[in-house]
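Hi all, long-time lurker, first post. I run a small reading group and we've been trying to get comfortable going from sequence to structure in the token notation. Rather than ask abstract questions, I figured I'd post a concrete chain and ask someone more experienced to write out its structure so we can walk through it together at our next meeting. Sequence below, copied exactly:
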Amino acid sequence: MPKVYENKDWAKGYDVIVHNECYAGYTDAEGIDRIVKDHLDLGVGSVMIHCAMHTFRNGKTREWDKLVGVESRRHGAHFAYVVKNLAPEHPITKAMPGNWMTPKGELYHTTILDSATKLAVGYKPGDEIKTSQTCVWANTYQKCRTFGITIGHHNETMQQKVYLDLLTRGLLWSCRCFVRGANNDYGSDVFVCCPTRCTPGGSCARVVRVLLAARRRDAPGRRRLGFLGPAFCRRR
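-- Answer (accepted) --
Happy to help. Here is the structure in token form:
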């Protein structure tokens, strides 16, 4: 089992767990089920980035897939692809452009589960019908919310402002933060703090500051975005 999960209390004290690991070779069903159960028992939110969808893919249990919200076992060739916003009214994607382009990419082949809401698809320019795959979604499994995004194989993509805005909103949705009155560069509301669980300057506001700082080219931590796991946004 990955060492981070050996501690039985590994998930306690967090509002959201950011998964950006890739443990495709770990197959012990009992261990995988326990990891998911830790999420479910605590109701902790989760963010699944890129290879987290292939984590535990060879196991015989499907509990990880249920938490993630999609099934994925492979990806296609590397190419830059179009990301098409399918849910302009959803809190996560309401501020996103209708379409945007990744500078590089590795498009995962995905099957979305009934518990999940498809937010965006990715496809090779000029070949939408044959290459389209769900690449952004929101999922609810029991009392856990999961934001999933397969985009993020290359640093160049993860440093895009549109990507970081999307990740920010998805993360805060997963830990049940709400829209307040601030605006971002797209002219739409952004998440800044949860009025029922945070005070100004609380955990959710700190997450916003971290992610918005990371999207600036001169920010020292920008390359660390997506490698902040297995957890951040600690409860006060």
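A couple of things your group might point at:
Residues 150 and 186 are 23 Å apart (CA to CA).
The longest helix spans residues 29-42.
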